[in-house]
Design a protein that fits this description.
The chain is mostly helical. It has helices spanning 2-22, 25-49, 53-57, 59-62, 68-89, 100-109, 113-123, 127-142, 150-156, 161-181, 193-206. Helix 2 packs antiparallel against helix 5 and helix 5 (68-89) crosses helix 8 (127-142). It is elongated and about 60 Å long.
């Protein structure tokens, strides 16, 4: 019986590896795009939960000598990670499999121009925000610009949490629709679980 189990498992591994090798490029790119969106979303939720509306309610914890420094550093880390995930999603390099540009290129090659137009129509209102995100990534994270301070770069590319939230929501919606039209299982979900989990941590620290 054990030998039969091992044989079945080995057969399944070989089948899985063969499937991955044969996986169409469009499946791979769409999966990577969805990963970028999910990462941006979870980092946004944690960053938002640690700041803004919750700062007054949990001010004692956020400013405490015991937890304050860690929570402040955590919030900054999730802000940076969120911006990096968004920058990866809208990277201008077509050889990056996790970016929108690569996905649109492959869709056009497959004569799915209507899906390219769908993406462009949904993302067009966010063009200015995307430029600002990419500028922050280039000037502060990928390369340090000696002509501007960090504060100057952020001030020049000022944005609001609502803008970022709407960008992530629209990206999830449109790429979910693209996956559905291609009959590909969509991996992106809007859950709010990371924000809820962060609030629960803050509640525990209050005790």
């Amino acid at each position: 019986v054990n030998q039969l189990r091992y044989a079945l498992r080995a057969s399944l591994r070989v089948h899985t590896l063969r499937y991955r090798k044969k996986m169409p490029t469009i499946h791979k790119i769409l999966a990577d795009v969805e990963t970028s969106i999910d990462e941006a979303s979870c980092h946004y939720e944690i960053w938002w939960a640690l700041g803004s509306a919750n700062r007054q309610h949990y001010s004692e914890i956020l400013k405490s000598e015991r937890y304050g420094w860690f929570l402040e550093s955590t919030q900054i880390a999730h802000l940076v990670a969120m911006l990096m995930s968004l920058a990866r999603l809208f990277d201008s390099h077509e050889d990056s499999s996790s970016c929108v540009k690569s996905l649109k290129k492959v869709l056009d090659q497959e004569n799915r121009h209507e899906l390219t137009q769908l993406i462009e129509g949904k993302m067009k209102p966010h063009q200015n925000l995307v430029k600002r995100v990419l500028d922050i990534r280039c000037k502060l994270m990928a390369h340090t610009d000696s002509r501007e301070t960090d504060v100057e770069v952020f001030n020049r590319n000022g944005t609001t949490p609502k803008e970022i939230k709407n960008l992530i929501a629209d990206a999830k919606q449109v790429f979910g629709e693209v996956a559905w039209k291609l009959n590909i299982r969509n991996r992106s979900y809007t859950t709010g679980i990371h924000e809820d989990s962060t609030i629960k941590v803050l509640e525990k620290l209050k005790l």
